[in-house]
């Protein structure tokens, strides 16, 4: 897998005042996703990456009661209406090479990937991806989110800020 360098720029920024605002952004992003997309969810422990992923998976039609965090399994796969979605949490990945056993090649080529702790992939993290970067804000339930991607992503996410 080649890790090419792609010009990424800021596409979107929002202050998410509570967990519902985070879920709402995930629901809007879900409508823009398609086969082959790789979305890197970045930010510190407890910032809301899994919360965002759960809302996104729900918005794509997953109705089963539980959407587990892949904290220990490292990956969960969902067969959705339009594509398969792989949700990775690579926090506990000891060696980037181990990601191949989790099926990253299949995920990247045959579905949509949501990746928590994407830095663990090192050189295997594809350059063509969308970065969703979360940080803590002033109040307990507030977060800042910045979305970065290449020009093609910027075109696709043009309406993200609008209802
Ligand atoms: N605005 C917000 N957006 C997202 N989560 C929020 C927000 N405000 C409070 N929370 C709470 O913060 C916690 C976020 O936990 P979550 O498991 O989603 O974090 P994470 O980034 O996946 O952490 P980890 O790196 O451990 O996987 C949840 O308990 C959630 O309810
Ligand atoms: Mg998480």
Could you please describe the fold and organization of this structure?
The structure is a single chain. This protein is of the alpha/beta class and 163 residues long. It has a single domain (9-156), classed as P-loop containing nucleotide triphosphate hydrolases (Rossmann fold). 22% of the residues lie in helices and 27% in strands. It is built from four helices and seven strands; from the N terminus they run E-H-E-H-E-E-H-E-E-E-H. The chain has helices spanning 19-30, 49-59, 104-110, 151-156; strands at 9-16, 38-42, 75-79, 84-89, 111-116, 130-136, 143-149. Strands 1-7-6-2-5-4-3 form a seven-stranded mixed β-sheet, with helices on both faces. Helix 3 links the parallel strand 4 and strand 5 (111-116). It is globular, with a radius of gyration of 15 Å. The N and C termini lie far apart (37 Å). Adenosine-5'-triphosphate is lined by residues 16, 18-19, 21-22, 43, 45-51, 89, 91, 116, 141-143.
Number of domain modules:
1
The run of helices and strands is EHEHEEHEEEH
Percent of sequence in beta strands? 25-35%
Specify the overall morphology. globular
Please state the CA-atom Rg, rounded to the nearest Å.
15 Å
In round numbers, the mean pLDDT is: 94
Broad CATH class: Alpha Beta
| Model regions low in confidence, pLDDT < 50 over at least 5 residues | none
User: How many beta-strand segments?
Assistant: 7
From the N-terminal CA to the C-terminal CA, the straight-line distance is 37 Å
CATH topology: Rossmann fold
């Amino acid at each position: 897998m080649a890790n090419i360098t792609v010009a990424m720029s800021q596409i979107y920024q929002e202050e998410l005042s509570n967990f519902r605002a985070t879920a709402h952004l995930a629901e809007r992003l879900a409508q823009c996703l398609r086969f082959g997309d790789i979305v890197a969810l970045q930010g510190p422990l407890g910032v809301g990456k899994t919360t965002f992923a759960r809302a996104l998976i729900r918005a794509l039609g997953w109705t089963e009661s539980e959407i587990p965090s892949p904290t220990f399994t490292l990956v969960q796969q969902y067969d959705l209406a339009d594509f398969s979605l792989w949700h990775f949490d690579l926090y506990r990945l000891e060696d980037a090479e181990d990601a191949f056993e989790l099926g990253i090649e299949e995920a990247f080529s045959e579905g949509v990937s949501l990746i928590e702790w994407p830095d663990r992939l090192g050189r295997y993290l594809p350059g063509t991806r969308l970065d969703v970067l979360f940080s803590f804000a002033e109040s307990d339930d507030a977060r800042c989110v910045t979305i970065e991607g290449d020009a093609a992503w910027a075109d696709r996410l043009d309406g993200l800020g609008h209802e």
